[in-house]
């Protein structure tokens, strides 16, 4: 079943991608095939996509653990979608919005930063596979990438 990306990814929409999307796609996680499908659709589409620099931090941990500088660079290129996905730094405005969101929704700091980055970048959709975003967020539409049922 999965998500219908043709309806969600329109050229007039700016979207944000949580780190979980990249992590599941990079690991080719069998229960989250929509993560890889989403990234493929973004790379082929006309819409604007972004992610927080926090994604780079979270995705680079494994390559650094394995001591592979080459893998770190490959992951960075993967996250940027070879230029189709903008990696946004944390600004003072993002930090303050993240603090506000932490208080309002009881989010962890990394989650609040991801969300604040998306809101400050005027994104209309935030894609995630993180269950911490089950809370109703009024500032942006959260699209959950759900796991496929286990056989």
Description of the structure:
This protein has 151 residues and is of the alpha/beta class. It has one domain (10-144): Rossmann fold. It has seven helices and five strands, in the order H-E-H-H-E-H-H-E-H-H-E-E. The chain has a five-stranded parallel beta sheet. Helix 2 (19-26) crosses helix 3 (33-44).
Task: Please outline what is shown here.
This protein is an alpha/beta fold.
**H/E order of the elements?**
HEHHEHHEHHEE
Major sheet characteristics: 5 strands, parallel
Low-pLDDT residue spans: none
CATH architecture: 3-Layer(aba) Sandwich
Instruction: Enumerate how many helices there are, as a single number.
Output: 7
* Percent in strands: 5-15%
Helix content: 40-55%
Number of domains: 1
Summing up helix and strand content along with how strands pair, one would put the structural category as: alpha/beta
Number of E-type strands: 5
Shape: globular
Q: Give the name of the CATH superfamily.
A: 5'-nuclease
Helix and strand topology:
Elements: H1 5-8, E1 14-17, H2 19-26, H3 33-44, E2 48-52, H4 53-66, H5 69-80, E3 85-88, H6 92-105, H7 109-120, E4 125-128, E5 141-144
Parallel strand pairs: 1-2, 1-4, 2-3, 4-5
Helix pairs in contact: 2-3, 2-4, 4-5, 6-7
